[in-house]
Amino acid sequence: MSPAPESRSDDEVLAGTDVTMLLRYGLTEEAFRTALFGDGAIAAAVTLDRLGVLPRSLVFVAEIVRSGGLAYAAGLPEPLPSPEPAAVLRDWLSGAAQTATGPEAETRAARWLEAVAEIVALRRSARGGTA
């Protein structure tokens, strides 16, 4: 049995994870995919949760990505209801849209946003808040 991984604080995950770069390359390159859906999703969830983003908002953006694509979602004036998290998400989506131009990559991006939403919901549930 392999040893359990070392536990890291939210701040340590944030400090060691560049969500923009992981999104840019993790959607199209297999070598980055595990990191994108692991530390990348956790760092994104921590960031957005701290900014008060609700999971359902991220699921809604995932549907927009599925329907219109990354570039379309990145071009929305308010992909999230509040200005600060909207700017953060727009930056991530814009970076991803530069390299992830195919339908498979955009589907992966939507799945990643749903994974981030799930992590935000779990964090809220663990704190006793509503998801």
Topology, please?
Blueprint: H1 10-15, H2 19-26, H3 30-50, H4 55-68, H5 70-74, H6 83-99, H7 103-127
Helix pairs in contact: 2-3, 2-6, 3-7, 4-7
Question: If you had to describe this structure to a student in words, what would you say it looks like?
Answer:
The protein is 73% helix and 0% strand. The chain has 131 residues and is an all-alpha fold. The mean pLDDT is 90.
Task: For the structure shown, list the relevant keywords.
131 residues, 0% strand, mainly alpha, 7 helices
Number of strands: 0
Arithmetic mean pLDDT: 90
Proportion of residues in extended strands = under 5%
Gyration radius from CA atoms, angstroms: 14 Å
Helix content: over 70%
Report on the biggest sheet. Answer: none
Query: What is the helix/strand order?
Result: HHHHHHH
Shape: globular
Quaternary structure state of the chains depicted: single chain
* Number of H/I helices: 7
Q: Structural class from helices and strands?
A: mainly alpha
Q: Gap between N and C termini, in Å?
A: 34 Å
Poorly predicted regions: none
Care to give the gist of this entry?
The protein has 131 residues and is mostly helical.
